[in-house]
Write the structure tokens for this entry.
Amino acid sequence: MAIHIEHELHKRRARRNLFVGLVLAGFVVMVFGITMVKLTNGGKIEGFDHSVRPSLEVVTE
């Protein structure tokens, strides 16, 4: 059975990778949260998809 000694560089790299992973996960949660708030509070969300919608036409009288 071989003796495995972990170098300090590997420990630092593991901590850095953990930090980057946590920051990335936080960013994903933030984008998901903003998306959910925009969808629930947005009311009518209508995009431009090359179709005529009566609700988007300007009424001139």
Remarks:
- The chain has a mean pLDDT of 81.
- The chain is about 55% helix and 0% strand.
